[in-house]
Design goal:
This protein is an alpha+beta fold. 49% of the residues lie in helices and 20% in strands. Helix 6 runs antiparallel to helix 7, helix 8 packs parallel to helix 9 and helix 9 runs antiparallel to helix 11.
Amino acid sequence: MKKFKSFLSRQQQSDNPLVDNQNTASRMRTIINDVIGGINEGFAFFDNNDHLILWNDRFFEIFPILKTMAIQNPTFHELETAILESGQLNIKPENHSRWLEMRAKQRKKPHSQTEYQLNDGRWIRVIDRHTSQGNVVSICHDITESKTREEKLRAAKEMAEAASRTKSTFLAHVSHELRTPLNAIIGFSEMMSRQLLGPIGNEQYQAYSEDILQSAQHLLGLIDDILNISKAEVGHLELKESTFSMAEVAMQIERMIAQRIQEAGLNLEISLSPHLPLLFADERKIKQILINLLVNAIKFTPEKGHVRLSISKSEQGLSMQVQDTGIGMDEGDIPKALEAFGQVENPMSRKYEGSGLGLYLTSMYVRLHSGKLRIQSKKGKGTTVTITLPLERLVNAAA
């Protein structure tokens, strides 16, 4: 800066101011040309009447048709028209007028950017900025590489989504096909285990038929879970809503899991707040939510442990909570437990059976009801799962 001021001082002291001023202007133009010539992007400077007055070589490398026009100080509109008429832009002739109108509107903004696709496949981004004096600076970037990456990512995403839809459709089809023979197996094995058509000669055969029934029911439940996931992934999982009593649902669930509780040697406690309001929701899915949570609690709670289901009204809505004194898990394992087929234990050595879909489906059903699910757990101390359904799903019993 000091050197530059010294240079100006010497010019002012010259005996021939006119010549020296011309030399100074010439030198300044040289300096400016050197500066903008070193810019990697295309550079163009327009005066306050939108005439081109300054540019660099890179600008003409991108738009070579403009090189012959530059010395005539064309307007921005004339440059854009020449580019369009040259066919360099990938824009159909019938859209030229609309394109010029759009660019004229953008040009009036203090800052704007436009992306061009050239007929050779390259992509150019032009950024226009207004200066405080009403001039416009245009910077042209070649963004072909980033556009290519975006296109590859978009194509990969579309392929992944198509593969996911194909998988979901396939699983849904296979699940429907498997249900028919499974229902027959369940029906016939149930008849045999109950000896509805007369006694079975060998008691061991009866035990086998009961094993077949249990295995078939387990497999049917797994198929139903997979079918529900497939429906959810393709957006076909819907709620069949009605108004019902959560107290009655709790009693039904207690009867359904009574045998499991007894076989596991656990203590079950059900706590319901008095005067529970009715709930407007999908009753079947609400039952499935609570059964999934209770079955999980039973599965991971050692003998003589405790499992508790509590349902109450809170300021946020209806609160349903399942607590157990089971093996629990580390806080970092909770997100994994909520994944489809998620297993906290090592799959090669885990002790507990299950598909790993229970919590995932539970979370999905809660979201469908616009509810929230929260899991608190500590290794060796047990787990508490709290589900809150919004206030708008509660119905005044008197109404």
